[in-house]
User: Fold these one by one.
Assistant:
Number 1:
Amino acid sequence: MATATVSRPPWMNPPSVWVRAIKAIVIVCIVITMIYPLVYVIAMSFAAPEQARAGVIFPTKFSLDAYRAILNGGTVVDGLRNSLFITVVGTLLSLAATSMLAWGLVRTRQVPGAKIVLVGILATMFFSAGIIPNFMLIKYLGLLDSTWSLIIPGLISAFNMIVIRNFFQGLPEELIEAARIDGAGEWRIFLQIVLPLSKPVLAVMGLFYAVAYWNTYFNALLYINDSTKWPIQVVLQQYVLAGVAIPGAVVTEGQPPPPGVTLQMAVIVLATIPILVVYPFLQRFFTSGVLTGAIKG
Amino acid sequence: MSVSTTDAGPGTRTERAPGPSARPPPPTHTLRPRVWRERWSYTFIIPGAAFFLVFMYVPMAGNVVAFQDYSPFRGIEGSPWVGLANFNAIWTDPEIITALRNTLIIAFLQLAFAFPAPIALALLLHSLLSTKVKRLIQTIVYLPNFLSWVIVISVWQQVVGGGGLVAGLLDNFGVTGFNLMSDADNFKFLVVAQNIWKDAGWGTIIFFAAIAGIPSERYEAAAIDGASGWQRTWHITLPALVPVATLLLILNIGSILTVGFEQLLLQQPMVGADAAQVLDTFVYFRGVLGGQWGIATAAGLLKGIIGTILVLSANKLAKKMGGEGIF
Amino acid sequence: MAQVSRRKLLGAAGVAATAATLGTTAACSGGTGGTSGGGDYDMPTFQPAPELDVQPFYSSETPGMESVYTEYPKTFFKSVEREPGSGGKVTTFQLTWGDPATPLEENTYWQELNERLGVSFEPQFVPQPVFDQKFATMLASGDVPDLVFVNDQSAGNLQGIRDGAFADLSETLSGDNILKWPNLAARKEEIWQASLKDGRIYQIPSIVWALTNLPVMRTDLVDQTSIGRAPKDADELFTMLKEVSALGTGPGGQKVYGLNKYDAHPGTASMFQRLFKTGAEWQLNGDGDLVHITQTENYKAMLEWLARAWAEGIFDPVSMSPTATDIVSGAALRYDAVGAAIGGAGLSQWEADLPGATFDFFDMPGFDGSEQLVVRNVPYGRSTCVSAAAAEDEDRLTEILNVLDYLSAPFGSEEQYFIANGTEGVHHTVDAHGIPIVNPDSMIDLSVQYVGVTSGDNSYRIHPNAAPWADSFVTVMESMAQNSIARPLEGLESASQTFVTKGAQLKQLWTDFETGVITGRESIDDLQSFSDNYMSQGGTQVRDEYTQALKDAGK
């Protein structure tokens, strides 16, 4: 633990050796259990084909075959582009729509009808419409085979909306009241006070939305027939399938089938990397002091 | 201006919630002036409400097939109405009891153990001083969330399954036959442990957002008053997490009948249906695989109704106990 | 929503009448020339595909056994003379796995295929994980593509056929009518017979092997046992497997067991069903009554044997794991797909992957020292249906069937060679054995063509890499075929509506009990109460419906 290099706030006493030791042990245990599968996944993704086929637990010979096979594929680049579009545009639109609705629903007691809307939205978390009606709606709206079919139906998540609303409710009332007295319009209050004060929760919800959009899989399979419009997860999953025997199919002569395990693991690595890359940028929003800083300024 | 350090933090709420045009409500009881006064709120609400209407409620009308012997090609108009037959098929099935019992036990264990796990983990990580170490560990503990259940179960098999790492260690001490993965008696704890392992790290994020909202002045003031690290965690950090924790708890209670479908389906062959059959796998085998849309939809409707009732009750209860509730 | 549904209803109106009739007469006819839904027809005439220009390594008349070839054909016949299409468009709904095909503009194979077909071929690729869901939305939307890949083992797909989404081809293909499409005609009557739905032809079935899996042994391990490679009965097999488990580790330090995988019927369980001669899932007992396999004495003996095998450590503890990647041990006996074993990456590759390991095919004995009893598969595989709406126009139907005829050209034909391998030098190269090897980069181009119907030659083709095992392959397969029976319910599976809707649930119940007994979670003494439960949860209905279907079919 490299705590020595950190400047301790003057008001904080150094914790006792025992507390630090116990904490360190607990954290090391957690990290080990969580890191084992990751090492396993990464190692298997680089396993040499013969070792993967022979079924070793931890490979000793390595190859880039799986990555080469996947990245050479015709639709991987398309898939990345599609997913990037869906994720960036979708997350921005979702955050805008969700925070707007959440702010509108903060005052259920004063606004007639707001409570009904809120309960109605809450209920959608527990009822689902099923595949066919959703498909028919998308078809009716002419969104089949359109990238928008992967963004619009997931624009607002009831869960995320309710969580943001919960955070909005905790915002200091005085600040908003003061702005109102200063003559700020409702939109200005929302854009210049509410949203900046809510950066941590917006960052979290942005992450939730981004991950959901990035992982879009099932809807894409249902709504998009044109494979050049498939998001990356669909394209990647197809490689996993390629390693699986097709039920009822007769295997004919030809190449040895690609070792399914390595492909599968390489797919996980490739699909997770973007989240690893984005995450550190978001982490700074989770540091204490954002709120106070904003209020003081 | 500055906010007082002793009140109005995220943990303690003011009576009036902030919101569009939050002027003190004049004592009026007629609807129209109230609506007119709050017209700004509606510009925020209507687009979102319209979204839910079109993309959630319109397709939900398709749930009428719960009362049909539905076939996709014949459509809703062409499929025969069967009254409550689909609901009866569910309730009269001898295995519904097992499925419900397993579902409720797992859900209860989840609430008891998996629910608090991210809170504990967030507090632990928050107490670390080095930002670098903190961020590194955060990143590591999030990652299992992105592994599919097939991989998670495979990895667990390698560690606590028959012939796995733990079994190998025990073998050295003469204890043979260790296989947690096929132990039907402890299966439900295994399920919850897998859940904690996979999702607790990811679950901390939302609590970090809440912790981020705590003004550091409050820690300073507490430290000046002589509060120890534990006391600061107990009296400042934890209370700040209560509103969001309550919210998540209420929402989780609504989802009580939904426990990890894929996770349980995959492990059913190893421990048997008596231990691993839950409501969703029950419906899968009866409705989905048999092409019985009516039964699957009926089960979904029942779950939805029960979930909504539970959430509304939990919300009421939370408010009775002096908490915030959702609304 | 209302508008969408109305549109759909209009589309469905044309077939509503047929659908209604079919719905009520389900399971009432299974014989030749059924008359339930439409006009009279005869079974399509069988016209064998031209012979290959190489001599078979082995050929046999035994039912279930196919010719075995070790050489690849040198010349290829032309299977159809005409150009299939006349400039129209043919849409398909087809299963895909792996990367989706390259778009038409960049896909020289697809462009060439369009030219050869004489139509604009517009496939819709449906990834395997969502096939059933997509199938349902396709039906619900009312837009049924011209050619649809159908898996009639899936309840939802079967429902689509029953509801009239697809054309009744009985009269179109009746008797010699089918000779207009020689490649479609290259399938035996038994295949048509088995794939009938309510006595009518809705689907064009693929040929498929009656025996698709066979046991493979690790000779390096088995040779170290006191029994050797040819145990005579269940007890000797038990000893052999137990001694392999006792070895602990094998070549390369790999952990070894007698068995390392158990999955229920039709998985590895079939191997032990053959050993214990348990017969088909539904079978006729001595009194001529239909009984379920679990109600037989042989099944009970099999379960006892397996439970003992588990208790005495013959099985790898992870044998029941659903994920194949968990199984890293070696096993004395495995149950492999024939195609994989005799393919280019079969036994020879397995030996190369694990130096020291040697493999051979294994001839399963009968438990009591007699011969094993093998149940042959459904004699047809994946099928293709034609959209009912598209078939209303006779010229359209002809063009669609022409295209399907071309796409289902038999092995040994020029057409099949192109379909499977593309153009030499562009999409594939020919290896030292004369076998075309598709360039890895062209693989995804070629996935355009998979509509899922194959015709004609149904032989076992051994890759030169697997040639050293050809003799042993023939011995084991011939032994299986000679001791094989067809299922009494052949062609009548879908005649039980209860089986269609409750089959999955019953299967789960059965599998759960079976694995429970083997692993010691359940007791064999509960077999009777399990059986009662099975019958009361739908088994009785299934049995009665099948009994009726057998009676109607005159069996």
Number 2:
Amino acid sequence: MLWYILQRFLASLMLIAVVIAGTFFILHLSTDKVARGILGPDATQEVVLQKKQELGLDRPIVTQFADWAARALHGDLGRSWFSGEPVITAIATRLPVTLAIITAATVLIAAVSLVLGVLAATRRGWIDQAVQVLSVMGFAIPNFILAILLVSVFAIRLGWFRAVGYQSLFDSPAGWLDTVTLPVIALAVSGISGVAPQVRGALLDALGKDYVRTLRSRGLPWRRVVYRHVLRGSMGPALSMLGVHFIGMFGGAVLIERIFAIPGIGQMSVNAALNSDVPLVMGFVVAVSFFVVLLNLIVDLIQAWLDPRVRMTT
Amino acid sequence: MVEPLLIIDRLTVTYPGRGLRARPFTAVRDVSLDVRPGETVGLVGESGSGKSTIGRAVLGLAPVTSGTIRYAGHDISRARRGEWRKLAGDLQVVFQDPYSSLNPALTVETILMEPLTAGGVPKREAAQRIRGLLDAVRLPKDSLDRLPREFSGGQRQRIAIARALSVRPRLIICDEPVSALDLSTQARVLAMFREIQETSGVAYLFISHDISVVRTLSHRVGVLYRGRIAEWGECAQVTERPAHPYTQRLLLAAPVADPIRQARRRDRWLAARSNTIPQPR
Amino acid sequence: MIDRKPPGPDTRRRSLMARVLQNPLGAICLGYLVLTILAGFMASSISGHHPNEVFPREIRLGPSAAHWMGTDSSGRDIFSRLLHGTLPTLRDASIAVIVASLLGTLFGLVAGYFGKWPEKIGTRVADLLMALPGLVVLLAVRTVVGPSMPLMMIALGIVMSGGFFRVVHAAVLGVRNELFVDAARVFRVSDTRIILRHILPTVRGPAVILAANLMAISIAIQAGLVFLGLGDLFAPGWGNLLNGGFANIYIAPLELLWPSVAIGLTCVIFFLFGNVVRDELARTGINAAAVARGQGAADGNARHRHDPAAADEAPTDGQAVLGVRGLVVGYPGADGRVNRVVDGVDLRIARGEIHGLIGESGSGKSQVVLSIIRLLPEGGRIVAGSIFLGGRDVVRMMEREMDRLRGRYVAYIPQEPMSNLDPVFTVGSQLVEPMRIQLGLGRRAARNRAMELLEQVGIDDPKRVFDSYPHQISGGMAQRILIAGAISCGPTLLIADEPTTALDVTIQAEILELLRELRRQLDLAVLLVTHNLGVVADICDKVSVMQSGRIVETGSVGDIFADPGHPYTRALFAATLDDAPTRAPYASGLIEANHG
């Protein structure tokens, strides 16, 4: 099993390395445009060339990448072209904010999906119908549209929550709740809409399995079969999906942070993209990539724990 | 002596292992047999014995690792798709599962036309021919417009047989063609196989796990055990006076529908059970 | 598709589009989309205002007759701007979806059909494309290409093509190894033709669904990009209205509401459309009946649960281990009526008796078995009759009482050994669990008993098997384990539903021998369902012959095999191949004569 997990881990590490390299090359496709993006559209060709030289963009791209990668491996992602702040510092100050929100949303997704999915699959009837309708709606409505509606109603009209800003959980738990509740809900709804039907479907699927009938024929009560056998056997796909949503929320956070004016990594990257701040954008991609690898590993480990067939593959 | 239509000579099929550390798997090892025109050769064996793999190898659907397969005088064991089509175009197949061997989205007419049009038969002539085929397999005339799911298992298998017959083959590979059918349907379909052979002179390579099915239809029989031929010979000899202990046990293990005879068989089976089966080489 | 009149009221052959339109929700979705696009095309004539026309004295007004949705902070008509933004928004989103579906379908088909290296490369590239969230990639792209929306949408399409590839690839894999594709290959059908005729149609459904969903996602991302200020702020589009409105969220919340509703609604509609297509496709499948069943039993059933007159009679003699009387099992049919799959079955089994229940597929024999343990599949129910187990009618029993009876009085051996073991628990824990609950054994006692049981059913190495997972053992061994589980709580009656059908004959003989042995040791009564007359002859004392939901003949095996009374029984015997003659030896001369 260790070998299997290690293999998967190395594969996802490789994948991410290629993604990072690919992004680097994309970002250096048109250095003219980047330089012009920094200097503004009216800059003369001469100034552009000078800027490129200053930033080292005139060197062969492979050299640039080798240089960047060598330093990145030592934890140095360069400095922002715009503010001069080291990229690592910029990320380190903003990432915890984003991470707190995404993690809270993931916990919410997992809890609500489990309850809704189990209810829908075991009770059927109107609960099932309601879960299905809600999941279509929740999945379809873009999360930033939902965020806008939430802000308008609960922050501005009703004044229950703060509309903008962020307070750290450690500074003030109440303030944290006050600031993150709406963003977390906005992020979690689409996740719940994706994961809850998955839980429901997997459960229904497992309930129809032959071994469920056989276990029941031995006199095991229905509840016991559902909670001990069926639930465990059907959690795998839902878990993978939860992982996908965790990563996906890094994309969602870009918009949500803007709406709630949360000083997270998403906000940072939007400004970086607007300013053609290549090192900072690169830093953002590296940060997200790190979590992709980490999360794949965690999901694999839990899968292996849940299912002996995964555990025993070599 | 008639020149055999199909000659399989020391066929070995090895599947490469999947994944990094999986071992390659040899499904068929060193199998030789031949089928003469108009003859039925039965292949019998239990799951994993490699019987279906032999059929698939003949059809070019399984990789030939070593050995040769000659059909009508040509070596088809390593032929590429285009070549294979030219050499073995009149080789046909009827699969076990009448549910998945017919595309559920196509009408019976389209299904029957396909091999004909692909073989370049003009549309008009093809349409004529499939009408005759429906008669041959005793399906109602209005079947053409219908979808496979509107037919029972036995009827579907007849459609599959009609499809195989449409190009006037000289050899049909029958891979467990009656295993999915009920007893009474099975008997009817087997009778049809026989009748078609008697009128058209087609040869069958007939693969089944059921020795009694193979027995009623075959001229010669091969018994497969773990990828090798354990016993090979005339049908009556193999199925009534088997020489190999595995064949003996296989025969005794299948219960007969007669309580008194079955009780005697069971005693012989219990006696034979303790004998070990020699591994083929 | 060939356009021919179906022979009856056959709803299955209409085209997908027609079916989607007949679905009320499908019609609403399509109607909305058509109207939206039309409105986009006729934006100027509907709204009556130019989108950039400024009404300097009508800044941030609420809805009025002149401005249906009010005006924005520059005094422009919001309705007009919304309408004019429709087509650009949909166009941009379509770019991404078209790129994604073309790339995904092409490469998915090729990779799925040919396998080998195209498949390897395709899967890797798809993994790459899907590794990061789309918006993250787009931020990087935007850094380089600037505010060009078409370029960003092409990039989005490329990113999304990874997901499209996966769906198409999976669909192709589903049919690649279908026998009908193999058959087509044997029939000299060319690869292109196989792909077009046999494979593309199966891909069409999932592709349409995915495209609809991606359309919703693309609209959201397009609007999101513009909202973030990453797009061209002067190009018309819904995102722009959002961007403008967001600045005034405190002063004029309504201004933000209109584009939000437009975006949200359109996304929902695309999603719903995808769902309708999926539902309609699912309905075509073989499980059409199952879908109908899943929608709940119709209540207009003629009779209810059981008929009291029959239930009042106790079984006539106390010897019977099982007494079934007038059993009727029904499933709700398509038209709300009850479909009777078992129609008045009587059955009586004495202690220590092995009773064969024989019949062909669809005769209802499995339904009888599942009724006895009261574990009918969803939708099925006992409509009438009584089932006495040890003198008590289980038809009217509470579920909790039934749980106590299962395993302890009546136990069940299923047909397919592998699928009847829970793959995520060890063999041992699956044996131990019922014993702890039913017999109240402690952990150690249950474990010891399980070991004994494994030995009893002829497993040589009980310790190793106890700790094995189901995927590590063979089918024959799995069936022995299931038998061990069935006898674990000391039942009086064993119900075996085709216990040897999925096994090879040599293993079948072993399992039958085991059952015989157990009956001798434990004095079990067995109801053995089979379609094999040889199995009945081998092991049964009595036999009942079942045909289309009814038992046509019952008697001792000796009597019935010697002199079958019912024509159906006689037909079954006639179909066995036991005494069929072997073929005459091969005569080459005849063949040659035939061939001329």
